[in-house]
Amino acid sequence: MSGAVAPLADAGLLGARGSLAAALAIGVAFGWCLERSGLGSARKLVGQFYLTDLAVLKVMFSAIVTAMLGAFWLDLLGVLDLGRVYVPQTWLLPQLVGGAIFGAGLALAGLCPGTSCVAAATGRADGAAVVAGLFAGVLATGAALPSVRAFYESTARGTFTLPDVVRLPYGVVVLAVVVLALGAFAVAERLEAR
Amino acid sequence: MTGGARGAADPRHLLAIAALVLGIGAALTRPAPRTSRPARAPRPASIDIAALAAEISREADHVTALELAEWIRERRPGLRVLDVRSEEEYATYHVPSAERLPLESIATLRPRTGETLVLYSEGGAHAAQAWVLLRAAGFERVYFLRGGIIDWVEDVMSPANPDEHVSALSRYFGGAPRAGGAGKGFGGAVPLPTAGNPRPSAAAVERVRRRGC
Amino acid sequence: MRPMKDPSGPTASCFLFPTGGPPERLGGGIRKQESGRASTPYSDPYLTGVALGLVLLSAYVLVGRGLGATGAFASAAATVADIVSHAQGRGNAYFAEHLTEGGLLGDWIVVEMLGVLLGGWASAALARRLRFAVERGPRVGVGERLAFAVTGGAVMGAGAVLARGCTSGQALTGGALLSVGSWVFVAGAFGAAYAAAYLLRRVWT
Hints:
The complex is a heterotrimer of chains A (194), B (213) and C (205).
Chain A: H1 16-36, H2 42-46, H3 55-76, E1 90-91, H4 92-109, H5 113-121, H6 125-144, H7 149-152, E2 156-158, H8 162-166, H9 170-193
Antiparallel strand pairs in A: 1-2
Chain B: H1 11-29, H2 49-57, E1 62-63, H3 65-73, E2 79-83, H4 87-92, E3 98-100, E4 116-120, H5 125-136, E5 142-145, H6 148-157, H7 164-172
Parallel strand pairs in B: 1-5, 2-3, 2-4, 4-5
Helix pairs in contact in B: 3-7
Chain C: H1 45-63, H2 70-84, H3 93-97, H4 108-126, H5 142-163, H6 167-176, H7 180-199, H8 201-204
């Protein structure tokens, strides 16, 4: 066992109630950031897909790079044990197909699950409608899931990260993602200036 | 960059430079490949033979299939069911809520507070061996399923002459209690479920507080 | 002589402080401010993104997991299914995963989403962006927009179930942890969104 103090909940420094309190605080900050950046507005959000307003790219990729670098360095410094952070597992086919289905729905709805809640909380009826649709969609799909079980569980790779695929050191992949992000931002600024 | 605050100290430019520096630093400081579950300095395993032998003889090392079924149904907190068989065997059928743990990767498992591990294999031998290894590595609450998945199928999925309670338990997992006295033992009397004979609950039940996006 | 600060850009100060700044340029085709009242411009997306990344990081540090959104919907659906019929609820593997002993309020991700509602509301309240409205494209009526929203939401729900998450859980959380499945999800989602947006031009432009 490493001597890292974090994740605090794992080290026993944060109990069940503490975890839920953290959930609330984290959620508030999450919702705050989404609203502040304007992603609670469907019209602004879909600008991403018409290449007029690339806030989605900027917000998300900035967040990913920040968290990625933070996690890497905290782990390297022995503060956080990254091995104990839950990494979403990989099912290649369901996530590709599910992702595509999700993306199509996103283009139609103009809001994603998180931003739809923000939109609803700020009075946008369309946000509330997306929330309702999400609930129905999840309920129906969950109920029907046993009939597509084989597909749902196909191509499982467990915990499977990009460094595993490209067989490069984790830090090198981190740098590659940073460079990719900065490049994407430069392109985004160009596109928006048109 | 257009559309932004101009001036000497654009915070976004500073952040971009910081990201680049941290990224380059990251690439330089990890010359060795880093696995997705990084192996921290492994604790040397110690075996207190007497203590483990005592646990074995008082049968504190294993659970029966029915006990495991109860634990799963009541969603015992911290329960993790680990299948040590091959990928094909797992894909064909596994205990509902079980995760795969190939024996080769047993060294990468780390103890977590509050977790109860139950290992199982086909008949129990590999799982029992894994039990010894994990106990030696310092895991506290770990058990193996006595009789393996064969017992699971016999006693939970297709129990013979069950009482009310066992019947209900069996049906919870989609099993079919049967009357009749086919004896215990691997004689082909109880076929293992195959891919073409689906059971309703085969996904891993992960700790809800941690997982689920 | 120092160049004049460009008045049309979003500013960092509006991230935390509700006092206004110059009206921002919302980008190419969507210039119109949505309400007549003066509301605070949106914050700079990069800086807000970094802040969001720190929030995500704090989740890793505090509880060893990341953000999520769809899971809350799954828990709600599971609870409803279970109330309707135990066979549909805990007898269904997907729903069974999302039923907690503590009920909905004992589920981390449900509490998180309640926080999201609160945080979103608070931010809008302070920025004077709270208002009842139906955001829609210029060629679409209110009824149509609401129908599209419900339909789009349902489709997203289906996709998120298959993919085990959405933009919060997969793209952000899994993306930052370099999970292959998450990056595959992002590729699929963005690819399909661009294609669908093109086909759905009438809805938004």
